[in-house]
Amino acid sequence: MKYDIVPKKGLGDLSFGMPVEEIVRLIGNADEVESIENAADEPTTVLHYDKGLTIFCEGESPTLTCIDITNEECTLFGKKVFEMNEKEIVRLMVDNNYYEQDADNEDWGERRIGFPEGNIDFFLEDDELMSVIIGR
Questions:
Q1: d(Cα 136, Cα 7) in Å, to the nearest integer?
Q2: Is 52 strand, coil or helix?
Q3: What is the pLDDT of residues 9-29, one digit of tens each?
Q4: What does the DSSP assignment read for 60-108?
Q5: The model's pTM
Q6: Which residues of 56-69 are buried (b: 16+ CB within 10 A; e: fewer)?
């Protein structure tokens, strides 16, 4: 599988809105599957893959809504994003027309840099990228 992030579209062959069955057909069975039932939200199926992916699917007929990526081979706009620091990530996003950004420090110690236009968040610890979360 290719680990190319395309903001608001997906990751490689994985596209937002894709049903769980199609995800499994493309990348195989998850190493762990978790179901989250919350009265306020739609049911969520979480597929955990040891290859650095956590995939979130929502709804009665679950479809892909969010991906948490920790795979260091992942690319964004042709660049290996896990080799970049905060300043380089911000520059990459701005160079690709994602100007609006917000940042905060999470309670657990990571720094989050978000680009709402692209539904993408970067989580860093000591200026090292730990994960990228993308949504539709």
A1: 8
A2: coil
A3: 999 999 999 999 999 999 999
A4: TTTEEEEEEE--TT-EETTEEGGG--HHHHHHHHHHTT----EEEE-TT
A5: 0.93
A6: bbbeeebbbbbbbb
